[in-house]
Structures are given as structure tokens and as C-alpha cells.
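Trying the structure run again after the queue cleared.
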Amino acid sequence: MSDDHAAGAARRPWWTISGLLERTRAYRNGVRGVMRVIGEMRAPFIASLLGVIAFAMPGQITEVYHLLAEDFEFSDGFTPENLRFAIFLGLLWLTCYILWYIGRTLTLLDLADTGALDQQGATGSIARWAPRLIGAAPAFAAAGGLFYAGAAGSEDADAEGLYAAAAIALLIGLMRIWLSWRRTRGGREMADRRSEFWFSAWTRLTFGAALIGFVFYLFTNPIAVLQILGPLSIICIFLIALAYGLAWLTYVNDSTGIPALGLLVGAALLFSALDWNDNHYVRQLPPASQDFADGSETMSFEEAEEMVRLASARASISTAFDAWLAARPTRDAYVEAGKQYPVYVVAAQGGGLYAAHQSATFLARLQDACPSFADHVFAISGVSGGSVGATVFTALAKAADERERNGVSPALGDDDAGPDRPDDVDLAACVEQAADHDQIEPKVKAIFERDFLTPLLSATLFGDFTARFSPEPIPQLSRALALEQAFEAAWRDVEPEAPELIETGLLNYWRPDGSAPVLLLNSTEVDTGLRVVISPIQDLGAGLRSYAEVAKPDEFGQVPDLRLSTAMVLSARFPYITPAGSLDVVQQLADGGVTVRKARLVDGAYFENSGIDTATDVLENLRQVLRERRRAISRARQRGEAIPNDAAIDADIRLIVFDLTSSNAEEPSYALSELLTPIQAILNARTSRSELAQLRARRALFADCRYLLGPDDSSFGDPREQCLKRDLSKSRVWSVSLDADAYEFALGWILSSSTLRQIERQLGTPAACKVDDARELRQAEQELNARYGEKDAQRQEAAAARREAEGREVDEAEPVVDSIAVHNSCIGEFIVRQLEGDGANLRRSRTAQSTAQ
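Done. C-alpha cells:
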């Protein structure tokens, strides 16, 4: 409200009609003035609001702040990580300055003639202070986010860096307000000068050329350069570009009446509604058999026979398992000893990069401990991040296996044999075996400590954002493609001897006589809500639709192949972070015919987040194969027929599950319930389905308990599912867990060093399985007492004394995650027990194969 209107309203009594009308008119004019000022600054306000959301929202940004705290340390001199920290602070200052400057300029352009800036009412105050607050808001949001990350259970070193970075961000915001407050307010002359600079044709052309040049730069996929910038700097660059772009469009609208922004948004909505610019079609390779078809004239008889054999093995899950089991290197040793061959099926949960690191690191740790472990893993069912971890482990195991078969890696010695009886475990024997083999855990860590968020974020904010305004699809700008290429670049750096392996065709990588497990990468079809399992196996059995069954074949009836990198990211497409993947699929019609339609595949977690349902379905098919095999063996023995070793082998199948455990002790939030309740229900339902899937698997495989009781009775997860060590060792379902109560694992595509350390620490090692027998006996005694209601005070006193004595032996400084580390360590030890002695058998088997060749 202006001063004149306020004075006029004050001169007339408010109870008179003229006074009421005058006062109403004054307030109405004041509201109009305020709305006019806010409307003029809508462009920088939108950009600033997005910046506040991006910098202050917990979750993935908290993990990014942890990385920023690590970059804050300059103890090793000035490094690229320190450069990333300095670039962010400089861009944060520039972002705040640009937002204030654009807001101030737009205000001056419109209000200089009215004198609103000199008014003392609401209009003048908002006109003066709104640009200052808009400019400083992102810095204040970054300060709050950094402070929250430091207070949310960070390590001491991280917390110090986070608080220091929060102080710098807060100082940037305060300095922005102070400097803009000190600046002299200008009139029309200053407004004209600013408009000549910010909204001149040369500035528009320069800015447009810079933006187009940056988008074109993304075409070349400069992963390393983007990773130096980091995600926070990319956000700042986007906010600057968005603020100026929106300001220019609103300036055109206000000065000419042409709704430039509305036309652009309308065009983007129209192109999307007509499905013209879908640039998220899945990258496909020529069919796996195309190489054979192209070289059919020169193909030898042995090559043609091998092609037919591989095609037969991949035809169904039963034929694949039969061929895989018959080709195991240590098969004969188990047959001669009359033992069942240990077989593992793995279910890797979703959860972004932390879930990928969890599954890949634990499997790699077992492979490094016992190099024959991969020969016993038949299949891995992965979802989202678990699919990424499964694919990375599978590719690394395949690369190591190929090197060993080609004589690149040293083989095991005959003196590396473990004990004859698997129950007498000697971990040192496995360590000796592992010393002569490729260590793949360091390669897993080298891959997952990379920054995959920045390429994805830059492609989202610039590439994909630009593609929305094109009437034609531009596949090169897909953010899913950027994520795939980031993983491919990380793989090439870690595995320079086999750089193309991550781009191998999914339908062509698996061989029944190799060490690479069968990948079962789960996705969800948007239009039907059904699972589509991306796997080299064509027929996975009842209830499972494989990619090879539904994908549109070419003119020769062959299904296009997928790169391993494409397949794993396709299982991890979680809109809006990553887009749905489009592909052409075959649909059965009611009259028996078929048609081709477009299908969209998203993250498998929409159907079920653990991968256990798919693993359980496959397990049931494998058990059926074993039942038929046993019946055939029994009939042959009754007839007195000789049974070849490849048919006589039996298998002991167990399920390894990767999950996340939490007590769910936090009170649920009911804020914005009308808006957020449907989303919360969907996300919580997928977690519940995972729990139910694991419960069904344990019941089907007769596994009564899930968690191992840790030292000093420390526990995690559901206390009703805790086991003694001897009970869990007999289980056929082993849960390798991460404790979400001990550490908050953020869903995303970047991991800080502290998160990497937490995951590696919680996973434990086989040698760290230390659960004292006295504790087991004491726990059994307590359970018996509780069961039969015994009230013997003397016995209870003795039990309490033992607890106190054993408690003094426990180091008080031990981390909270000690229990879960012991639990996971013991699962690793149980697997080592089963495989002990495999090293010598593997050596003898491969020596015999080489001699025969």
C-alpha cells in the first residue's frame, strides 16, 4: 500500500462508508502492487525455489554432501577433488548473484517509473527485499542441507568438513544480502543499462550459443570432465541457465504480449501427448546368432555344432541347469565322494548404488576367498541396484575365468587342497588358494566409488530437458544412455584387458561350461504391471516372462540382443530419476495370432524389490529338475545300468538373499497426507512384498530363522527370527543384511567414502565369524527356561554373572554394526565350509581338460 493511499485512508474515519471504500481501495491497490512485483520476479523465483529443493532435500543430496566434506580436506595438496569443492563454491556464489541480479533488473524495468522502489509500504519493501532473498535462498538451503548431513550420524572427520562447508555456504548467502543491500538503488537509467546487457540481442545470442554448445558437449559424453565438476556444480549451472532462459521468455511476454513460455511448454506437452519425441528406446544389438549367420559359408562343423549346443542349453531353465551342472569342473570329485554339489541362487535387492555395492562386494569377497565360488553360483536374480551389482560381479568373474583359461593367471597348486570333510573348515587353505587368483573385490570398489550421478544429472537437466522441446526423438540425449555410458567408462578403466566385456550381448555371454552365473534382471512392464525378466535363458518356466520371449524378432525370427550395461540399467529405471525404457514386443492375440506393440519397462522394484520371487520361481524349477534326475538314477540302478558321472551328480541348492533390515522405529509422517499417501503406500507396499517373498522362500526351503545372534546378545532385525550359529548353518536361505538403523543408506547413484566403508564393514569377512560357544549354550539355556517357565533364582543369578563377565570382554568402542558384521561373516564362513577342498579338485579337473585337449 502506497503512502498516499495510506494517508488518505487515515484521514477518513473507518466506520464511514467513504472511509471503508477508501481503505478497501488502498489495500486492493497495495495487493495489486505486491502481486505485480512478485509476478515480475517469477523467473528467478522459480529457479531459486528449485535450487532450495535440490540443495535442502535429504536423501541423495546428503550423500553428495558427504563427498563434498571429503573434498574439503587439503591434506594431500590440491587435488581434482579439491578443485570440485572450489568450483562448487564459486558457482554457488555466481548462482546467488545471477538470481539477485535478474530479479533486481526485472523489477527496475517495470517499477522504475512508478517509484515503487522508494515506497515505504509493502510494495516497496517486497520490491527491494525479494531479489535479495531470492538470490540468497539457494546458499541458505545448501547451508541447511550441509548442517543436516553433518548432524545425521556422520563420521567425525566428515562432520567437521560438513559444518565448515555449511558455514561457508551460510556466509555466501549473508554476503549476498549485505552486498545487495549496500548497493545504491538505481532509476530508469540504470534499468536501461541493465536491460541493454541482459536482454539485448547479442546477450541472447551469446547465451543461446553457450547453452547449445554445452548440450552439444554432452553429445560427446565427457564423463571424466563432468565428474570433475560434480553434481552440485551441475545444479548451479542449470539454475543459472534456467533463470536467464525463463527471465528472457517472461520479458518477451511482458513487453510484447507474446506468451513465449506458454508456447514452449505447450509444444513440449503436445509432442509428449502424441508420443513423437520418445528418445528412451532401449539400445539393441544384432541378434546373438547373426555372427554365425554372416559367417555361415566359412563356419566349420565344430563351430556349427557349438552354436547348436549353446542354443539348446539356453532354450529353457531346465536345459540350462542340466548343461551347467554337467559341465562343472569339480563334478567328478563330488560324485566319487558321494556328496551333493553345492549350488547357490542369489537374490540381490534394489536400492541404487548401495545395493549394487552390497551384492557385488559380498560375492566378490567370497570369490576372492575361494576362487571356485563362482562355479557354484548358477543364477543371480537382481532388481534395480542389485541388477547392477549382479552384472558387475558376473562380468568380473567371467573376465577372471577367461584369463585363467587362457593361461594369463596362475593356476592352483595340488598342495592347496583343503580338508577332506567340508565340516572341518580351514580358512587358511582358502586364503592360500586365493593368493594365486585375480582379486576382484578391489575392482568392485574401484567401479562403485565412481560418480555416476553427475553424468545422469547433467543429461537429465540439459540433454533430456532439451529433447522435450523437439518433435523428433534424439536418442543421444537420453539420460539412461548417459548412465549406461558412465558404467561402461568405469569398466574400461578398471578392466583395460577386457574393455568390451560390459558391452557383450546379454543373450551371448553365458556358457554352461563357464563361471559366469545366469543373470535374471527383473523389470516391470508399465502397461500390464507384469514382470519381464531380462535373461539369456529363453524359457524361464511358468509365471516368468523372459526378454527373449517377448521382444520383437527381426525378419529372420531372431531376437535383438542387449548389452550387459543396457540390460542392468533397464532393470534400474526408476522414473523420474531414470526414464522408462521403450521397446517393441510381441503380443499374443485372442485368436491365436500375434501383433507387435510398444512396451515400456521400468524398475523391477515396482513389482517386487528383493528379486526373491523370481529366484524362488527358478528354484522350484531347478528342484523339479533334480527330482526327475533322482528318479531317473533310481530307475537306472534298479535295472543295473551304468550311470555316467554327468548324470549321477546331485545338487544341494541354497538361496543367498541380500536385504536391508530396520526396526522401523520412527514415527510415520502424516504431513500432506492427501498428496503423499498414495506414494507412501506404493513404496511401503513394495518393501512389504519383499518381506513376504523372503518369508515364502524360507518356508518353501524349510528355513526357520533368518538372523544370527551376535556377540554379547546384540541383535538386529526381527528378534523372533534370531538363530544360534549351528541352526543358521543348516539353513537353506541365508540373508546377507545391511542395518539401516546403524547407518542411513541413501537411494541414488553416488556413494561417499564413509558409505563405502560402512557397507564393507557390515558385510564382514569369513574369517571374522566369531560367535562364542558359551554364548550359544547360554542362549539355549535361556530359551529352555523361558519355554518351560523355570524360576530357579540360582540359575538365573549364575546366568547374569556369566553375562556380566562376558560383557567385560567386549570392547565398549566396538561399532554398532558389529552384530550384523558377525552375522554376514558367518554366512561367508558357512559357504566356505561347503566349498573347502574345491581348489585342488578344480586344479586337477582343469589339468585333465588341458591334457585331453
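The radius of gyration is 32 Å. Worth checking whether this holds up in the mutant runs.
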